[in-house]
Design a protein that fits this description.
- The protein is built from 12 helices and no strands.
- The chain is an all-alpha fold.
- Helix 3 runs antiparallel to helix 7, helix 5 runs parallel beside helix 10 and helix 7 packs antiparallel against helix 12.
Amino acid sequence: MTDLLALWPAAITPAGTWLVIVAVLIAGLIRGFSGFGSAMVMAPAFAIAMGPATGVPLLILLDLLVAAVILPPVLPRVAWRQVMPLSLGALVVLPFGAHILTVADEEILKRGTGLLILLFTGLMATGWRYHGRPALAVTLGTGAASGALTAATGVGGPPVILFFVGRRGAQAAEIRAGLLAYFAFLSLGVIVTFMAFGLVTSIVLQLALWLFAPYALACWAGSRLFGHVSETLFQRAVLVFVTAMAAWSLVG
């Protein structure tokens, strides 16, 4: 047990430790239930507790690890004609986002992430959706915006979320499957890019060893809730928590 406890970085304060644990559990429930939204919870919490340079690689690594658990059952519902162009658009800009993460001031990046999340949650709360035709240029551009934001801040989901939910006739299960597949591809690409930039450090791996099990368990619980809990009530609760975390990262 002593050896296991030694894996938790001493630089993270007790308050930061509790913040990370709570954020991981809530993010896992959100990820398993809806297929998206976990980064909007973990990014500001991790930035507060450990800084973006450690927090962003950690949340991407956690998402990649759980993708192997929650993705296979939904593969038959994935709309690959949308997912693959989105993924391609995202992958080509990942080095640009990773460069920003390595050179930007951590305080500016933390507050910028909080502001970005507040803007996106406000947009989502209004019910605005993209209702245009998913032309190839729009799809590639959406993926590129998502990829750059993911590598730089960990929060690249909202552009893709708005893209998916705006498609005419799309069902909730199909949207969820597409998002799960897209984020699995994206997380793999980001981790490979981060490894090339030296961002997957021993501290990131240590924290991932600690947090993978509770995150995976929360994702599993969230997937079991899908179809049994009011989606509207769940989304409202998520928006409130995410807004609180984003505001904290701005003023903390």
